[in-house]
Amino acid sequence: MAQKELRSRIASVKNVQKITRAMEMISAARLRRAEQRIQALRPYASAIRRMTRAAAEAAENIPNLPILVERDSIDKVGFLLVTSDRGLAGAFNSQIIRAGLRTAVATEQDGKETIFYAAGRRGVGTLTFRKRNPVGAYTGFTDRPAYANARDIASDLMAAYVDGELDRVEIFYNHYISPLQQRVTQETLLPLQQASILEEGEEDGEEGQDGRDGRGHRALVEYEPDPADILERLVPSYVEISIYRALLESTASEHGARMTAMRNASDNAGDLISNYTLQMNRERQADITQEIMEVVAGAESLV
């Protein structure tokens, strides 16, 4: 490879490296803000789940509300995939899509119908390309989701469940652990009886999920109005806050994944620049050696 071409490639790689370093710094700044939003929301989301669980346990029977009706048979399953509007984030989007499609195939093999919803252009585009057009497509806010975005998604999902278009709703998103680690998470939103709010293992809070204190004693709670009315009001809030939390977790995971991907890209660009520089130096040394040999040969021919 000629020295001129090598210089051109080195210059091109350096320009790319500048871009990847800038994107890494931007993602790092956005990640800090996203982490703060998650830390502020997690205790509230956990409290909503504990309150809903406690109200469900206190109610003699679950109110006869359409949103709380559990189907006798599960025939239609809805999948909400939370992805991003932009790429360049490693396997951030692809792992969510793969998990959703893999679960959908297994569900269809059991004779059930699958219906997709997607947040983020990457998820919408991939599902459309794979001929699984999403019924609900929500884009343009994944960099900084607002509670109103979660409310819009929750409204569509709850309406579909009440109208009988869905018998169960599953959500897939990247749970943020650290900038280097995001975990693909699947949760059941509806029906309430199968949702994660009724499961053990919820973190946060000084008291346990079931209202027990640190000594294992159950706290006495008086409800006004009765638990059934409270549960009626809490369930929509639970769905909204669960989706909002998933959006925030996904946003932080996206920035962390992009920051890591851009850092790796910058490091790879540095290695490539070093290799090209070494190759160019070798080419230049070979040219100098060749010129010296030609001068010596010419001098010897004159003797």
Uncertain parts: 200-211
Query: Helical element count?
Result: 5
Radius of gyration: 28 Å
CATH topology tier name of the largest domain:
Pyruvate Kinase, Chain: A, domain 1
N to C succession of SSEs: HEHEHEHEEH
Inertia-based shape: elongated
Q: What level of helicity do the residues show?
A: 55-70%
Q: What's the N-to-C terminus distance?
A: 36 Å
What's the CATH superfamily of the largest domain, by name? ATP synthase, F1 complex, gamma subunit
Strand content: 5-15%
Largest sheet: 5 strands, mixed
CATH architecture of the largest domain: 3-Layer(aba) Sandwich
CATH class type of the largest domain:
Alpha Beta
Query: What is the number of beta strands?
Result: 5
Mean pLDDT: 84
Please, how many domains?
A: 2
- Strands side by side in the biggest sheet: 3-2-1-4-5
Structure commentary:
By secondary structure, this protein is an alpha/beta fold. Helices cover 58% and strands 13% of the residues. A 5-stranded mixed β-sheet has the order 3-2-1-4-5, sandwiched between helices. Strand 1, helix 2 (92-109) and strand 2 (113-119) form a beta-alpha-beta unit. Helix 1 runs antiparallel to helix 5 (227-302), helix 2 (92-109) packs across helix 3 and helix 4 (147-162) crosses helix 5.
Task: Give a quick rundown of the structure.
This protein has 303 residues and is an alpha/beta fold. 58% of the residues lie in helices and 13% in strands.
Topology summary:
Blueprint: H1 3-58, E1 76-82, H2 92-109, E2 113-119, H3 121-129, E3 136-138, H4 147-162, E4 168-178, E5 181-190, H5 227-302
Parallel strand pairs: 1-2, 1-4, 2-3
Antiparallel strand pairs: 4-5
Helix pairs in contact: 1-5, 2-3, 4-5
